[in-house]
Amino acid sequence: MVAVHDPTAAQTAPTKAAEASGACCAPSAEIDEARAEQVAKVFKALGDPTRVRLLAMIAESPSGEMCMCDLTGPVGLSQPTVSHHMKLLVEAGLATREQRGRWAYFQAVTDPLTEATKALTR
Amino acid sequence: MVAVHDPTAAQTAPTKAAEASGACCAPSAEIDEARAEQVAKVFKALGDPTRVRLLAMIAESPSGEMCMCDLTGPVGLSQPTVSHHMKLLVEAGLATREQRGRWAYFQAVTDPLTEATKALTR
């Protein structure tokens, strides 16, 4: 870990070093800005207790998916509100959505969360 | 998975069923509100790319800790801004702070993140 006191140099040096050497002193410490944005997006989507509960329910549903019609009751919120929360989870790549007739069905996708966590705990 | 086509029934039926039986079809799916709040707090603290980068740097520092004076350069932000980000990480239990003379030193605590992720991926 090198302390760089010139802010301008600090913003470019680590990326250049990583590209040039491919074997920095602590390459695993490098999360570049793009990767940090991806990781933060996943965590931000889960930075709300309702979305945590929704994803947990879907992830652990015996059938591997849940109908919108079964999600509103447990969290005690209206369908438009649950739809909004589910939209954010889908946008973050944490769920997929399939329309079947009147209802939307959701499947959990937890790989992005596992990967985001690994980026900080490996 | 039963599709309930009466929206009113959909909002209340599952909760009543869970309360009545105490042994729902998928008891592990239950993350209660208090636990969901805890989990969301951890994820919310990491819902920002700068905080992701700061925690990654500290977590993977060879000495296991980093001085505030070494954090500002890599993220290209002022000390007050980095202090604010670190305060949020400390409040979420993801870092500890130790003052030594002029500088604060931070240690990463990744257990809360590991536990929060487990709550959704077990």
UniProtKB/TrEMBL annotation, chains A, B:
Claim: Cell division is one of the keywords in the record: no
SMART domains: HTH_ARSR
InterPro entries documented for this protein: ArsR-like_HTH (IPR011991), ArsR_HTH (IPR018334), HTH_ArsR_DNA-bd_dom (IPR001845), HTH_MetalResp_TranReg (IPR051081), WH-like_DNA-bd_sf (IPR036388), WH_DNA-bd_sf (IPR036390)
Domain HTH arsR-type: 31-122
Gene3D superfamilies: Winged helix-like DNA-binding domain superfamily/Winged helix DNA-binding domain (1.10.10.10)
The organism's place on the tree of life at top rank: Bacteria
Keywords, in A-Z order: DNA-binding, Transcription, Transcription regulation
PANTHER family, per database record: ARSENICAL RESISTANCE OPERON REPRESSOR, TRANSCRIPTIONAL REGULATOR, ARSR FAMILY
UniProt name for this protein: Metalloregulator ArsR/SmtB family transcription factor
Organism: Brevibacterium ammoniilyticum
